[in-house]
Amino acid sequence: MTGPRITPLVASLPATVPFVGPDAHMRASGRPFRARLGANESVFGPSPRAIEAMERAARDVWVYGDSESHALRAALAAHHGVPMANIAIGEGIDGLLGLLVRIMIAPGDAVVTSDGAYPTFNYHVTGFGGVLHKVPYRDDREDPAALAERTAELGAKLVYLSNPDNPMGSWHSARVVTGLLDALPEDTLLLLDEAYIDFAPEGTAPAIDPDDPRVIRMRTFSKAYGLAGVRVGYAIGASPLIALFDRIRNHFGMTLTGQAGALAALADQDWLAQVCAQVSDAHDRIAAIAEAQGAFALPSATNFTAIDCGGDGALARKVLEGLMARDVFVRMPGVAPLDRCIRVSAGRPEDLDIFAEAFAEALAEARG
Amino acid sequence: MTGPRITPLVASLPATVPFVGPDAHMRASGRPFRARLGANESVFGPSPRAIEAMERAARDVWVYGDSESHALRAALAAHHGVPMANIAIGEGIDGLLGLLVRIMIAPGDAVVTSDGAYPTFNYHVTGFGGVLHKVPYRDDREDPAALAERTAELGAKLVYLSNPDNPMGSWHSARVVTGLLDALPEDTLLLLDEAYIDFAPEGTAPAIDPDDPRVIRMRTFSKAYGLAGVRVGYAIGASPLIALFDRIRNHFGMTLTGQAGALAALADQDWLAQVCAQVSDAHDRIAAIAEAQGAFALPSATNFTAIDCGGDGALARKVLEGLMARDVFVRMPGVAPLDRCIRVSAGRPEDLDIFAEAFAEALAEARG
């Protein structure tokens, strides 16, 4: 039997995944995590109002969710002071990244990002046949000047910037981001991934005209809002671009539960502020834990902290393995020199107690 | 400003959607539906065990759902007696249709379906640049002989059959489906959409070797299981084809809530049987309602009934408009001669009381 004829593009794709999920790690070890600090989830949970809304939704799930996510888009439009026509909803930023790449990238098209930046974006670019061009980080931050230069050289259609950054937790001021925008060729689209913006200091999120055709911003309910498990992200961009999502997306793909949860979560900004305060406390604690072992924590505008273990990638890898062996879930950057660090999500005090002990042991072991 | 450079393919796509959602209809009228019988949702709801599981999940949604949907795939594998490697999970059949088309169809590739069959499949084929070739229904059923003939003529990669059928509710025996499979070119893939199979009589679902590379079957928790609002579908196919979904899908796209709900729903087969009994009662009632007005109901192996209004498409369209004006949500087939019918989802007795009155009025009005 010959089997189905798949496209040459899909046949060429590697059988790798952007991330091995926490559940897969637990299945491999046969044990639950004692502290789950690897996926930048919010262990502080979502607003109790969001939980209530999702509990109520559980009885109503015989109906499809609104295919236009109208109530949620209207609330987001009001929240951001932009028209609804400038907002697209998707199954997390991951889902929106796939759609945006599909809208823009044909086989052979050049795309620019940073070496070590978000793997799932790269996965989608590769998946649609795009050619990734990567510029190095500079001083543990994505490098706007290098991104602009490489983009201009290539005439690239699309350039990716995460601000604040994942996996380092670093960030640029709003002024630097708008400077990048002005430095890019006029027909290049800046994909500004703001998954972690809720944790960033004032002055990080630029004021951008929502109808500026040069940029699309993406945000999520998976991080500060604590709703990773119901998959809700959104994009803010010029309405002609936003309208294109409707030509290709899975129209009934947004769950009733997720829409209800996100709507309630958005309305509870007090909860968000409280989570951000807890994350700030966690940063301080993680920094102290690192310092106590002669390592150090990088500044962070996110809900995670990169800890420089004080050696190279091999040392950090050993520390990570030691933590995982102790059922403490963390991750680490994929490329040098970022990979001298491990990446630890903000935890509750009890999570960080477990981390502190395991980190001390793992680091001592790794140092031999 | 020039704006972003989108692909010629996406630029060529029409700005239409496969279905206007029920919520959009309600926003347009400004009133809620009195009976919601248009989207083949299960008004009988999901298993109470599924509701409980989703209520519990509401507290846990700060974590991402398992990116491998391992527990659900394992349960489905046991349920169907096939290996896990033969099962892919997706955001409803709609999501899986998009992925399968992406795996197989490059611009210009021929795809065969029936004229009047599921629009969302067509939407995805068009979305990836495929060229649809449609054969007519025969006696209100998809026509396997015509599908096989057209597929062979074209050397088409992919052919779609829904069994039982939507929008007519008709069906073929398992023997006819396997006959189609044997009549197709060996390197054509049969996409067998079994969204409604849970309602069909014994002998409708063919026994197919899960490793048969000539066919992929798709099923859903949105219909008989009553979980439309959490988006869970699955495909059963040969493991090399199933593995390709992992190269392109949104790996963290399945919600925690949906996975928990589907797992609990699958375990409650008694609930499923009870829903099917209620659907059977609804068919009888809808047939009686139609007959009382001099119309008649077509036989159905689904959770909806096509009612032949006794005229042409224009008459049925008036009946549909009359029902919608009375806040009774139904739909109708899109092409002649199927469009002499309206399509009414199975309802509870109280839903069908409302339908009965509105249908009598709408039909009388339409007849003038």
Structure description:
The structure is a homodimer. With about 375 residues, chain A is of the alpha/beta class. Chain A has two domains: about 120 residues, Aspartate Aminotransferase, domain 1; about 220 residues, Aspartate Aminotransferase, domain 2. Helices cover about 40% and strands about 15% of the residues of chain A. Chain A contains 13 helices and twelve strands. A seven-stranded mixed sheet of chain A has the order 2-8-7-6-5-3-4, with helices on both faces. In chain A, a hairpin with a 6-residue loop joins β9 and β10. Chain A starts with 7 loop residues before the first helix and ends with a helix. The model of chain A has no long low-confidence stretch (mean pLDDT about 95). At the A-B interface, α1, α2, α3, α5 and α9 of A face α1, α2, α3, α5 and α9 of B.
List the helices and strands and how they pair.
2 copies of one chain form a homodimer.
Chain A: H1 8-12, H2 22-29, E1 35-36, H3 48-58, H4 70-80, E2 87-90, H5 92-104, E3 110-114, H6 119-127, E4 131-135, H7 144-154, E5 158-162, H8 174-183, E6 189-193, E7 215-220, E8 233-237, H9 239-248, H10 256-267, H11 269-292, E9 296-297, E10 304-308, H12 313-325, E11 328-329, E12 341-345, H13 349-367
Parallel strand pairs in A: 1-11, 3-4, 3-5, 5-6, 6-7
Antiparallel strand pairs in A: 2-8, 7-8, 9-10, 10-12
Helix pairs in contact in A: 3-10, 4-10, 5-6, 7-8, 11-13, 12-13
